[in-house]
Structure formats: C-alpha cells, structure tokens
Amino acid sequence: MTTINTRMGDGSPLAMSEDELRRDIDDGISQAVENASVAPLNKEEIEYLVELFKRPDRIVGVEPGKEIVLTYDAATLKIKRHALFEDRVNALAMYERLLGADTLELCHIDYSYKTLKPIVSYEQATLEQALSVTHSPMFYGAMPNLGLYTQPDGPFPNPMELLPMGRIAEGRAAYDSMVDAAVEDICFISEIMWESGADGINFDTVGASGDPDFKASLLAAEKLKAKYPDIAIEMGMAGEFVLGMHGEMWHEGVRLAGLYPLDQLKLAEKAGVTIFGPVVNTNANESVPWNLARTIAIIKPCGERATIPIHANMGMGVGAVPVTDYPPVDVVSRASKAMVELCRLDGL
Amino acid sequence: MGVGDPIGMAVAHAQASGMGGMRSAGDLVARVQLAKKLRLVEAKKYVADKIKVSVNELSDPVIMSEVRADLGFGIMMPLGGTPKGLECKFNMARVLDLEINCLKRFKRMAGL
Questions:
Q1: Looking at chain B from residue 64 to 83, which residues have their Cβ under 8 Å from any Cβ of chain A?
Q2: What CATH number matches the domain at A4-343, 3.40.50, 3.30.1490, 3.40.1700, 3.20.20?
Q3: Would B107 disulfide with which of A189, B28, B91, B112, CB 3.0-4.6 Å?
Q4: Is the ipTM of this complex over 0.85?
C-alpha cells in the first residue's frame, strides 16, 4: 500500500494511506459546501488532488504558460521581522532583483492607515525615492484596522464592552462612527500616496474587525475611485467570511455579516476595486489535503465569475498553507499549483 | 500573498507558480493588471502583443532578459550604461502604451 507523506494544517509531518487521503479530500469539500454554499469539486478535480498528493516530488509547479503574478502584502515589514535592518528602499530593490518579485509593496511597521497619519510625509518621501530606483509596480499598503478606533487607544466607545452589557444601539452607533473615521483615514493616506506616484494602494486584511471594517473599505474604495478614476486598489480579505460584529451593516442592499468570498467579490467589483484577494483560513487540526480541497471549492467560484483579477491569499495560515512561520515547500508548492490550475486565478 | 519566511513562502510560490518578476515579464503583466483591470490571460496577451513575443515566452527568463535588454525595460543584473529605474519605466510606458503613475509626477516635478 502506498504511503502518502504530507502534513497537517500546522505543518507537522503526516503519513496517510490513499483511502485516508480520499476521505480527507471528500470531507474538506463537504465542509466547503456546507459552510459557503458552493458546488462540490467534480470527479476530475478530486482525482487531480489525489494524484498531486501521491507524487513523491519534494516540489511541484504549474505547467509552463500557466504562471501567475504575485503580490506581496507588507513586503518591507517582513524584512524587519527577520531582524534584518535593511533600509526599505533597498529592501524593495532586493524583492525585485533578488527574489524576482512581480510587484512591490512599501509599508510601515505599524501597518494601519490610522497610525500613518502623523508620519505620512516621511512615508511619502520614502515612496518617491523607492519609485525612482525600482522597476516593478509598487503598492503602498496598510490595514483599515478598525480595532484602533476604540477607547482608550481611539476616540470611540468600545462596542465589545457595550454589547455584552446589552447596550446594542450604543455599540452599533460606535461602529458607525468608527467607519466614518476609518474611511477618512484610508482616503487621506491613499490620496497622498497616489499623488506621490504609487502604482496601487493595498487595503490589506480587510474585515479583520468584522462587517464595519469591510464597510469602511468598500466606502473608501468608492470615494477614491470617484476622485481618481485611474487609481488601482487591491483589497485583500482577513478571513473567509465577514464577521458580524455590528450585525446590521449593509452595503448596496447586501448585509455584510456572514458573506463568503464570492459575495465579497461582487461588492468589491461594484466599489471599483482593481484586484480582489479572497481568503480561506487554514484549519491547523486538519490535514493539508483536507484544507486544500476545502479552499479550492470556496475560491473556485471567484475565479470563474470575476470580472477583475483575483489574487488569492496564500500566505501563512490561509489558502491551505500551514499555520507555521516556516512553511515547507512540499505543501506550499502543491497548494500553489492546485489553486492556480483549478481556480483560474490571476495571481496570489 | 502574505510573505512570511521568504524561502517558505515567497520563493516557494515564485518557483511553483510565479512568472518571475524582472527575470521574465511578471512585472509587466502585473502592471497591465493594475492599469487596465485585465485578468491574467488577457493581460498576458496584451503584453505579448506589445513586445512581440508569444505568451509562453513571457515566463522564459532567457528569452525575456534579451527582450528586456533590447527594449530598455531593466534586468536583474543591470550593467553600467544601461537604463535603470525611472528610465526603464519611460520605456515601458511607451512600448506597452500605459500610463505609469510615478512618471506623471516625475514630469510635473521636473517641469517637463
């Protein structure tokens, strides 16, 4: 009997039989169908995944001609995370000319639009310098991060304190105020960076604070597109469904709480977003084949129906990539290949 | 893509499924996605037609390094006397028939 060597969702090694592999793939698909109301994968797609995991190769890749482009959220921040104290302009040149990055992203270590306001002129000057010595398209990126808008760090009452006390209306009113403030901050930074020459603005980890976070990002995209019709905006999501922190927040007649990637995409398209980054969270307690099957079933409808480029999130802990700081290439390359070839993606 | 450990993440994805950035034409295809909201197939065809190569050749580092050098688009190991940075972006904007945002600022600041 063939032993298939793969990994758990936390990256730890796992040996399975082919029957166990098939059971995990089927179960992952069933979970996707149940959770996100998507169609199951067909027989050919399931066999593709079985063969992919049966291959003994350490690293696999897409067929020639099927290569995609990559965006790198918070790229310069990741250099600092390795305790490499490289100037950010040089770090971007390294991404481009040592790592072969298709796109670049300048960001600040405090990766939120709100915190950038006092230091924006320094960020602006760095961006302008970086743009003059690099070649690849460059984003400026940060998170909407509505969590920064509550007391004591921010100006508004904390709904997470109000809601458990039954003060629902006050909690929702606080969220409404946070949305207005976040839209103003996102637009303030984005306008300056676009005027300074950025090729695109990245709204990263959208929805991390739930439906108000998503609402603020959609409104900011609409406002920016109205002022700058040519502005490019990438919207990368935080999780696979929008948490209903407010619960009654609507946009374009759609309730935001509980939306899965395809419905998120439709709103992003309407708001004028240029590139959409859907997310499926990796379950560390299940195998990578389980996670990959589930992820593909949820993301595939986005790739099939999108009118804008789809760059699925496949960083650590999402897109079937294990939840570990040191993702092994055997499973990352399998997830990369399968997502690109089965989901009709435009990038990662 | 969220790049954690670059070897485990950025390099793994780049090797498994990436176009290769300036090693090939990944940056050019990405530029077209951003400027024209084109999906991958259409963006690749747009670039291939403009620089007169086949779609499959766009991901070939040997062919594309020569094409990039000829067109002044910038290469991974730039030699002295060759276009770099903004100079390459002017060449890309002309050949690909694209507006590149930072060039508008450059012209404005330089009084051109």
A1: 73-74, 76-77
A2: 3.20.20
A3: B112
A4: yes
